[in-house]
Amino acid sequence: MTWFVVAKHEEVYEELEKHALTLKSKVRWLKSKEDLADNIEKGLVFLTVSNDDIIEDLYEELIAFSGSNQGIPILIDIEDQVDIRKAIRAGAFDVLPFPVPPETIRETVKEAEKILLQVKVESEKAPVKKDSPEKDAKIITVCSTKGGVGKTTFTVNLAAAFAKQFKKVAVVDLDLQFGDVSMFFDCKPNKTIYEWVKEEYYGQPEKLSGYMYAVNEYIDIMAAPIRPEFSEVILEEHIQKLTDYLRPDYDVVLIDTAPYVEGNILTALEKSDDIFLVTFLDLPTLKNCKIFIDTLHSLGLVKKTKIVLNRDSKKRGLNKENAEEVLGMKIHTRIPDVEKVVVTSVNEGNPYVYSYPRAKISKVMYSLAQDFFGNPVKKQKRSLFAKKVVNEGRLV
């Protein structure tokens, strides 16, 4: 394994060379970042940061470097002035102090080399031919301005309704801190969007299959990170690429979001063909929804937005007309308030479209799915007479 060291100070090179010899690696010394592009091959790239570097420029360079797939960047922070969180978000694999403790560099190099080896193995595999032509998925983002309105419940049941139409569905959990999509499907994925970004994005980001959890034959999920702080690593560019890579392999990509607006969610909204904004009949929720609609207006996204009125009930003191008046938009879909069915479904980790297929609430979801693709193609059933003829050998 080759280490590329970009350093102005010879003592940095000498120390890293000493560590490299211990770990049986080679070292190449480059005196400036400009030399990097002409000399780089797949390997570890050590970038030193000293007091004469402009830190903000460094973060921008990291973003550009990480997107170039040239190697794995590791920062050596000489003056203890790097914001580690910003550096990791910009694409640094790790930030090490100087002098570097032997055990620290050993652990970092081991993890980085593991990723490089994985990328190499994957690239040497023969490409798998697809039996079916590429799809062109409809990308649908489900959002809300308040937690607890039933957004995730709506998302997983819409996915199940599409699956009942024999559509291949990817569900992306973009509530990166506290996403619950996995729980709603009663599953525990080993890998999440965080692992995809850290392990694959800067090598072969199109390799998604190992990070999608198969719920059943038709539904795969890209789970949210298992720890809230891991969400810091996920950037807008990752969401943009993720949707691009999912589109050819699925009929529908459903994106469940957090109940607020930030860069990753705005990227998902911009990439979407349709947006479902979930609300229900109380004034604070409707007020916040109206503010969000105004934001969508300013972004030019309101034309592809549909309002979903969840827990629709005559007992709430407000009605559909009141909601439309506050929002300034027509209600597209009304989900009936069937608390027992929904709560049981959530607690069992089984969408009510599966567990209560004849319930009124399930029929609403079927109807909504059919709006996108029409009625599912049903297998033609033989009549009892036809079966009898077959048994008698008169029908081939």
From TrEMBL:
<dbReference type="GO" id="GO:0005829">
    <property type="term" value="C:cytosol"/>
</dbReference>
<dbReference type="GO" id="GO:0005524">
    <property type="term" value="F:ATP binding"/>
</dbReference>
<dbReference type="GO" id="GO:0009898">
    <property type="term" value="C:cytoplasmic side of plasma membrane"/>
</dbReference>
<dbReference type="GO" id="GO:0016887">
    <property type="term" value="F:ATP hydrolysis activity"/>
</dbReference>
<dbReference type="InterPro" id="IPR025669">
    <property type="entry name" value="AAA_dom"/>
</dbReference>
<dbReference type="InterPro" id="IPR050625">
    <property type="entry name" value="ParA/MinD_ATPase"/>
</dbReference>
<dbReference type="Pfam" id="PF13614">
    <property type="entry name" value="AAA_31"/>
</dbReference>
<protein>
    <recommendedName>
        <fullName>AAA domain-containing protein</fullName>
    </recommendedName>
</protein>
<dbReference type="InterPro" id="IPR027417">
    <property type="entry name" value="P-loop_NTPase"/>
</dbReference>
<dbReference type="GO" id="GO:0051782">
    <property type="term" value="P:negative regulation of cell division"/>
</dbReference>
<feature type="domain" description="AAA">
    <location>
        <begin position="137"/>
        <end position="296"/>
    </location>
</feature>
